[in-house]
Amino acid sequence: MLQEEEIRNNIVTRVAEEMLTAARTAPKGKGIDNLVLAMVIGSDIELIAKKMEEIGNSPEGTPSFVRDANNIRKAQAVVLMGTLIKSQGAKLCGRCGFKDCNEKDEHPDFPCTFNVGDLGIAIGSAVSIAMDHRVDNRVMYTIGKAVLEMKLLGENVKIAFGIPLSVSAKSPFFDR
Hints:
176 residues; 6 helices
């Protein structure tokens, strides 16, 4: 006999895997994929939560990091999504504020709008999968900040978000 809790945890893991697939197959500007994706489960969620509390309790921190750290402790999984900052070689694009990609490349910490847009589209595709399966979720920049500081997605990822997932009687991500 399988208890519902065990089934629930397996479903959340499977949905997280489907979310990563949806993010990977989401449309990308110029067909160039700069996404870095991962799933966190178990005790690794606590490592991120502790980092979020550290950020929130720092002199320049905000209470939302501590609040969100407590929220993700109730999650069965967290999907991590980030992007590299690489220009796409678009001629005369200029949407980043620079004349072209050559000029933008002189400022490597400024994001290419293709990278940011691709990440947003991927996040939308991923959360639609969670919604289709009735898995509670919320896109959190606070998780992304902690993940970037921890370099969990690698040195070169410059923008990241986290999406905690939960199946419970009440969404831990709603009344915040």
